[in-house]
Task: structure prediction
Amino acid sequence: MGKPAILYDNRLADATPVVSDTAAGDFDVLNLIDWRAFSFWKPATMPATVTVDSGAAAAADYCLIYGHDLGTQGATVEVRGSTDNFVASNVLIDSATPTDDKPLLLIFTSSYRYWRLRFTGANAPSIAIAAIGSMLRLPKYLPVSFDPLGRKPVGQVNNSADGHALGSIVNYEQWAADIQQRSVDWAWVRDTFEPAWKAHLLGRPFGFAWNPETCPTETYLVSRHGGFEAPHKNGQYADFKLPVIGRYPS
Result:
């Protein structure tokens, strides 16, 4: 069981990604890196690639594909790295052929200047979010009260004029939680979390993997739900809490 991770760092955002091609319509490649699950990139032909030049060797230990139809389309995704923009150097780092369209989280350890996602298969997939980066690992496991599965249906419950249940309309299932870390070092809050907060988490959605190694499909796209708290304790420790809210992935 791995410690929880916040996912926001993205090598694909180090520069403008270059794609093999794009399908007609509103499928701009920049949709991949906006952390929004309702805008998509889709290639016109297969196999398809998304390539970025990070400018120098840059580390990554995860790949997140969220809001995709890889399983439906029977497509495979490969994570590749290169030192020379895929001329002589073309290293397969990890790959997957999902059988469903749930969030896909791959975990590895690599460092390359050039990064590439390569999609193969007969049918072109649609991808909402793609990230290759370094996880922000939380220093401790979540408390026993953490609930990874509980969610709230958002929609309308219908009853007859005399109160009998008629059914309900569910627009989506909402997932909310408090990411808590008890008695963590002040230094982690100041030197690790706060820079991420200022750079991304304050104003943009991000991924949260409560158990990346064991339950990778239970990776949620969330936003902060208010602010974070880090009251100090004796001995240079703090109790950390970050409320988040998002949609339970279907």
The chain has a mean pLDDT of 96. The chain is about 10% helix and 45% strand.
